[in-house]
């Protein structure tokens, strides 16, 4: 008998986009993520820096494992590298079916205080050590970035 694992878990990975993704392509991707994730009770965040993704997925262990399997086969990116898959006591992004930020190195350094992002030899997210990834998640979890996530809001027009 296959045992189910419904315990709350966190998975983080990095990957490299297969081509430069336009703002519209990212918006379309996020729409699917948010729709699917809300049904599966998955939360998290997605960062995009210089053609690399950093994603955090939170939810039931088995759902996260299956989602990661699916995402890692997606042709829009490659070199998908799992950084951590660990038990979680409490969700850090409970209100976010998928928070999104496209960031520059300068912004990352400012938000996280991790100045090594500014080193020219630093490869950004890719090949990032787990401890550094956890520090990155912690910095974003405290909410300073949320105000800037404009993809969560529908444009409003004022006047006729
Ligand atoms: C960087 C990246 C992150 C993604 N994140 C998610 C996600 O959080 N949730 C999700 O459902 N799909 C995500 N996807 C998309 C999936 O790979 C897949 O295209 C989508 O879930 C639709 O699958 P379906 O055709 O089986 O419905 C992501 C894709 C990429 C390239």
Coarse structural class: alpha+beta
- The mean pLDDT is 85
Listed once per kind, the bound small molecules are: flavin mononucleotide
Summed up, the helix count is 4
The tally of strands reads 5
Unreliable stretches covering 5 or more consecutive residues: 153-160
Estimated radius of gyration: 16 Å
**CATH level 1 name:** Alpha Beta
Report the CATH topology name.
Alpha-Beta Plaits
What does this structure look like?
- The chain has helices at 23-40, 61-72, 105-112, 130-141, and strands at 8-17, 43-49, 52-60, 77-87, 99-102.
- With 160 residues, the chain is of the alpha+beta class.
- It has one domain: 2-Layer Sandwich (Alpha-Beta Plaits).
- The protein has a five-stranded mixed beta sheet with strand order 4-1-3-2-5, sandwiched between helices.
- A hairpin with a 2-residue loop joins strand 2 and strand 3.
- The chain is globular and about 45 Å long.
- Bound molecules: flavin mononucleotide.
- Flavin mononucleotide is lined by residues 29, 32-33, 36-37, 46, 53, 55, 67, 70-71, 74, 76-77, 98.
- Flavin mononucleotide (FMN) is lined by residues 29, 32-33, 36-37, 46, 53, 55, 67, 70-71, 74, 76-77, 98.
């Amino acid at each position: 008998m296959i045992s189910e694992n419904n315990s709350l878990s966190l998975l983080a990975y990095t990957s490299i986009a297969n081509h430069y993704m336009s703002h519209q392509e990212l918006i379309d991707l996020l729409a699917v993520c948010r729709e699917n994730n809300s049904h599966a009770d998955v939360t998290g965040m997605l960062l995009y820096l210089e053609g690399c993704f950093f994603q955090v997925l939170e939810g039931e262990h088995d759902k996260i494992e299956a989602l990661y399997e699916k995402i890692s086969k997606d042709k829009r990116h490659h070199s998908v590298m799992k950084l951590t898959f660990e038990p979680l006591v409490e969700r850090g992004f409970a209100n976010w079916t998928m928070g999104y930020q496209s960031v520059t190195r300068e912004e990352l350094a400012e938000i996280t205080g991790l100045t090594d992002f500014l080193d020219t030899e630093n490869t950004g997210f890719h090949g990032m050590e787990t401890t550094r990834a956890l520090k990155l998640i912690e910095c974003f979890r405290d909410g300073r970035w949320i105000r800037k996530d404009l993809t969560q809001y529908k444009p409003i027009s004022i006047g006729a």
